[in-house]
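ok new one. same drill as before - structure tokens go in, u give me an amino acid for every spot. 339 of them this time. try not to just spam alanines like last time pls lmao
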């Protein structure tokens, strides 16, 4: 695709770096323009980090890559990337129109994003991982970084976006304070690992089921800690702000999603506010809860792996989707090439 800015108008400003553009000659043609800061120009490769990481990956039906990149636009310090526009939006936007989320939709997201994570972690079939490339850790998996894609059926597909916080996996245990802390595991800031992305995937499953992240209220935790210590903890100074520290350190907790309303009442599961109305968590299956909890284990060594998700869980997920009796539930269910 050749990008000519003069042929496009701004339709919507999503944030200072991202705009939805509409073609002047065809109002049905939309793209997303993202402006990113170039990285390390002195290295000879000044492309933004996100573009560098996406370039390492073969094309896949689980990861969104740009259709055009304009280096040094709008200035030498930045580049502009053009992405296809997906009108259903991200999971956060889409879920607001789908409450409660049907279980087959959660299974499809869970499986397809497990495939995406296994793909970037080089834990998939040799045909997609035989290319010599490093293992990539996303470090910012969350509802707003997973797009909902219309595939022509009533069962949408899901794709991973935004590799701006990604890194190469290393064997060195180094802290990293990047990404969105509320969607990161309890070992934050040590998130440069495959296991950290697995926890974040489990957190998105929990969000689709409940509408909240698997984390206590950071404000309540901050108030309790401040009352206890009389000040912010010394380690809070290592974070950009005290608020970010508490978002990283607030205890993680996920209630079971397979409980009936009576069981939730007896076990003290709090009500969830949906459209301002307190409600019980919708009851999902034991098997979905089991795999979600396997991702959300507190210890990284106790969590399931992306390889287990795309082998053992995939078999069970496909069986569940088959049992819906709707062949469309199995549309686009396998990882493949293409973008």
């Amino acid at each position: 695709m050749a990008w000519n800015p003069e042929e496009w108008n701004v339709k919507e400003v999503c944030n200072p770096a991202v705009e939805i553009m509409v073609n002047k000659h065809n109002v049905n043609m939309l793209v997303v323009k993202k402006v990113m800061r170039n990285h390390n120009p002195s290295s000879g490769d000044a492309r933004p980090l996100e573009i560098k990481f996406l370039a390492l990956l073969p094309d896949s039906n689980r990861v969104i890559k740009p259709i055009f990149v304009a280096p040094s636009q709008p200035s030498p310090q930045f580049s502009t990337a053009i992405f296809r526009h997906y009108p259903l939006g991200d999971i956060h936007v889409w879920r607001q129109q789908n409450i409660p989320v049907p279980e087959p939709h959660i299974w499809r997201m869970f499986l397809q994003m497990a495939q995406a994570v296994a793909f970037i972690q080089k834990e998939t079939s040799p045909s997609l991982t035989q290319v010599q490339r490093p293992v990539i850790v996303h470090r910012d998996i969350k509802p707003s970084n997973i797009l909902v894609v219309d595939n022509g059926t009533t069962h949408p597909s899901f794709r991973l976006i935004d590799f701006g916080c990604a890194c190469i996996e290393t064997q060195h245990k180094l802290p990293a304070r990047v990404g969105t802390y509320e969607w990161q595991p309890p070992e934050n800031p040590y998130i440069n690992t495959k296991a950290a992305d697995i926890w974040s995937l489990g957190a998105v499953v929990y969000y689709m089921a409940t509408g909240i992240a698997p984390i206590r209220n950071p404000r309540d935790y901050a108030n309790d800690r401040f009352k206890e210590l009389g000040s912010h903890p010394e380690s809070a100074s290592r974070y950009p702000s005290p608020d970010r520290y508490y978002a990283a350190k607030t205890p993680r907790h996920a209630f079971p999603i397979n409980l009936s309303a009576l069981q939730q009442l007896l076990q003290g599961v709090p009500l969830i506010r949906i459209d301002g109305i307190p409600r019980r968590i919708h009851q999902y299956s034991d098997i979905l809860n089991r795999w979600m909890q396997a991702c959300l284990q507190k210890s990284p060594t106790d969590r399931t792996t992306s390889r287990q998700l795309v082998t053992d869980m995939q078999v069970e997920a496909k069986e569940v989707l088959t049992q819906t009796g709707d062949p469309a539930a199995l549309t686009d269910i396998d990882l493949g090439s293409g973008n």
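The domain at 91-215+252-330 is CATH 1.10.510.10 (Transferase(Phosphotransferase); domain 1). and btw The chain has two domains: 5-84, 91-215+252-330.
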